[in-house]
Each structure stands twice: as C-alpha cells, then as structure tokens.
Amino acid sequence: MNKQQVKKIELGTFIGLTMALCATVRSIPTLAAVGWTLVFYTIFAVVFFAGPISLISGELSTMLPQEGGPQLWVKTALGSKWGFVVAWLLWVQMFPGMVMVASTLGPLLGNTFGNVELGENHWFVLACILIIYWTITILNLKFDMAKIGGKVGVWLGVYIPVLVMFILGIFAFIKVGLVSNGYLGTFSWSKIVPDLQHMDSFKYLAGITFIFVGMEMSSVYMPRLKDATKNYSKGIFISLIGLVLLNVINAMFVANVVPKGTMELSNITQPILIYCQILGLPSFIGNIFSFMVFLGVLLQLSAWVTGPSKTIIQVAREGLLPPKFGFHRENKYGVSRNVVLTQTIVISLFSLLYGVMDDVNAVFLTLTNATTIIYSIVYILIAIAIIKLRKDQPNFPRPYRIGKKGNGLAYTVSIMLILGITVVVFATIGTSTVADAILVSLISISMFVIPLIIYRFKNDNWLTEIKRELDQ
C-alpha cells in the first residue's frame, strides 16, 4: 500500500470536506423567508437534526467501516429488509430532490438574459427541467460526466456564488441598515421565537432542516481522519458552526433587503439584483452571476445523476430486485442504463407539478418537504439501528463512541433525532394546504411502501439468475 493511500486527513481538511457536503446557495431564500425566526429554526435544526445524525454516523461508520454506509448500518442492526428500504429511500429521495434543484435552472436562465418574468413562468421552468435533465442523462450514458463536472460544479454553483452574495450583502447592509419593509424589519427578541398563534412560518421548517441533510456522509472520512476519536466531534462541531454562519448571515442580509411578501424561493439571483440596485452597480452583474450558478447547478446535477444509483445497483446484485428490471447491469463507466433512465422518467413525472401548479414557490416548497420527509425516514431507521446495536452487540469494537461508558448519551442523542424529525414532519403537514399535505404524504408513504412490497415478493431465484448473468 503506498503512502498516498494511507495519508491521514488533518482536522482542517475534514472540516472543509464536511462543509462542502452541505454548502449550497439554494436554501438561503427559504431560510430568509422566515425573517428573524431563522435564528430559532437554525438552532433547532442543528440541535435536533444535524448534530445527532453526525454523532450517530460517526459511531456506526467506525463500527462498520465496510462499504455501504447507512444501508449497511441498518441492515446489520435490523436485517436485510430494512437495509433494502434504506437503500431504496436514498435513491428515491432524489426524484423530488432533483426536480427541486433543477427548478432553479429556469429562473437562472431567465436572469442570465435579463428576463426575470420568464424565470417566474411555470411552463418555462417545466421546459427547462425536462430538456436539461434528459440532456444530462443522455450525456451520462455516453461519457464519464461525474468525473468531468463534479469539482468545477461545486466552485461555480456553491463557493463563488456564496462569496459574491456575502460581499454584496455586507456592503448593502452598511449602506441601508435595517430596511423597515423587508422580511427582517425592526429587531425584537419576540421575533426570534415562532408565534404559535400564527404558525405560517412552520411550513419552511423542513426546507431549513434540509440544509443539513447529508451531514452523515462526512462519516466516510473517519477511517482516514487523524486522531479520529478526538477530532471527529470537534470537526463536526466546527463544521456546523461554519455552515450556520454561512447560511444565517447570508440569509439575514437577503431577508433584510427583499420586500416582505415577494421572496422567490427558487430564484437565488433575486437578492443579487436588489444588492446591485442598492449599491448602484450595473445589473449585468446579476446576469453573470445567474449564468455562473446555472452552469454550476448543471454540472452538479450531472454529477448527481449517477451517484445515488450506485446503491441500487448494489442491492440489485444482492438479488433484492427482479432481474427483469436490469438494474444490476452497468456500462463501462459504471452506470446502469436502466436505473438512470427509470429515475429520469420518474423525475420527469414529478416535474409535471410545474405544469399543474402555476405557483412556482408552492411547487418548490412541496418538493423540498417531500425530499426532507423521505430522507427523515432513513434517519429514523439509523437512530433505531444504533439503539439496537448498543443493546444486541455491546462489546463490538467502537473506535469512536458516543459517551465514554454506558448507553445513556447514545440513547438521548437518538431520541433527540427522532423527536426533531417528528416535529419537522408534523410542522410541515400541519401548516401546508390540504392539497399540499395530501401530496407530500402520498409521495412519502408510497416511496416507503414500495420497497416493502418488493421485499415481500422477493424470490431466491432472482440472485441465482443475476449471478449467472454477471458471471458470463
């Protein structure tokens, strides 16, 4: 084994890698839309969601360092059925999730050409999603797009836009101070805590929580992290502070200048244009910003087309899916044609919401809520898994352990996660319109039930047939 392979990751590098997993500009308008209450919601998301899942993932990933991640953890604790359910949910959450991400392309393209109204047109947004997603799907089948676009996409779609937004936001705030008609308005301590009599802002809680979805993936770096037992918790804590500051400060600047009642959740260029207006800067800065983020999102989408499908290829090869699906077959780039085409067809069906509903903000919020709730089911299963493994395998080596001795702290952290998810789900459903609540519930329940039905009818011949084909 060469030195490059065993080189340890320093704490600073680990913090950067962890932040990169969750860093995004897409969630900033959602966070800004709740005004001063964003402080309370962000603390809630960190304490009851991001923090617990990071600590739990740290223990489980060192306990079970083999490839598989959440699917392996749940499978070891709760059996192959629930491991399959986790693998399935991690795949299908991208159906509404990718539509949500791709929905930003329409407004970005409209702003690139200085046509803001075009980006707000739901038919234009739908056309952009369908044309662009099918194009990058075909390209992924022909070329190694994940290798081509991943790193460049993060810079264009995340790092540079966040920095530009932050700098413009600071200068705009220095010039105008607190704007009375913005989402922030004048400050009072009472505005930080949600008003339980007017619970409208609760509908954004899932979207705010979604900022931290993916934190568990940082656990993959544990085996290579220098002095992991001490540095993992420290790195996660610092990363969370960094993410909170990055999102909260930017969201506060945005909430200050966007006039109340006009926030466009899927249009990240809106605050940039307002900043330019305040600072007397040319509007073409907004055009350049839009085009840059458009390219970044495009490249990131391309990289994500094949990523989640790897898990489904693996479970198909374990005989958990019918051979006739063809999900076990890969091309020379490690891409399963049938998996990628299936997910693109389903994503296209989800995108038709933009044809049925003309309120772009409402569709964006519905898709965000559905994605968050599907992902939350995975997190509940992970929380149950650590409790079960602590009970059934108390002496199993745990290089990183929540609490030096006893199970009290691990159980508390797990219960906090389950409690946090319960609050998010009820807040989302309870504050949505009846139609939206039914739609989000149907999406989430159906995505959860489908793998249970498939597993119920699982046939031992599936594995035999798949192995025979792969051995040829």
TrEMBL record:
<protein>
    <submittedName>
        <fullName>Amino acid permease</fullName>
    </submittedName>
</protein>
<dbReference type="InterPro" id="IPR002293">
    <property type="entry name" value="AA/rel_permease1"/>
</dbReference>
<feature type="transmembrane region" description="Helical">
    <location>
        <begin position="122"/>
        <end position="141"/>
    </location>
</feature>
<feature type="transmembrane region" description="Helical">
    <location>
        <begin position="204"/>
        <end position="223"/>
    </location>
</feature>
<dbReference type="InterPro" id="IPR050367">
    <property type="entry name" value="APC_superfamily"/>
</dbReference>
<feature type="transmembrane region" description="Helical">
    <location>
        <begin position="82"/>
        <end position="102"/>
    </location>
</feature>
<keyword id="KW-0472">Membrane</keyword>
<dbReference type="GO" id="GO:0022857">
    <property type="term" value="F:transmembrane transporter activity"/>
</dbReference>
<feature type="transmembrane region" description="Helical">
    <location>
        <begin position="408"/>
        <end position="431"/>
    </location>
</feature>
<feature type="transmembrane region" description="Helical">
    <location>
        <begin position="278"/>
        <end position="301"/>
    </location>
</feature>
<keyword id="KW-1003">Cell membrane</keyword>
<keyword id="KW-1133">Transmembrane helix</keyword>
<dbReference type="GO" id="GO:0005886">
    <property type="term" value="C:plasma membrane"/>
</dbReference>
<keyword id="KW-0813">Transport</keyword>
<feature type="transmembrane region" description="Helical">
    <location>
        <begin position="363"/>
        <end position="387"/>
    </location>
</feature>
<feature type="transmembrane region" description="Helical">
    <location>
        <begin position="437"/>
        <end position="457"/>
    </location>
</feature>
<feature type="transmembrane region" description="Helical">
    <location>
        <begin position="339"/>
        <end position="357"/>
    </location>
</feature>
<feature type="transmembrane region" description="Helical">
    <location>
        <begin position="37"/>
        <end position="61"/>
    </location>
</feature>
<feature type="transmembrane region" description="Helical">
    <location>
        <begin position="153"/>
        <end position="174"/>
    </location>
</feature>
<feature type="transmembrane region" description="Helical">
    <location>
        <begin position="235"/>
        <end position="258"/>
    </location>
</feature>
<keyword id="KW-0812">Transmembrane</keyword>
<dbReference type="Pfam" id="PF13520">
    <property type="entry name" value="AA_permease_2"/>
</dbReference>
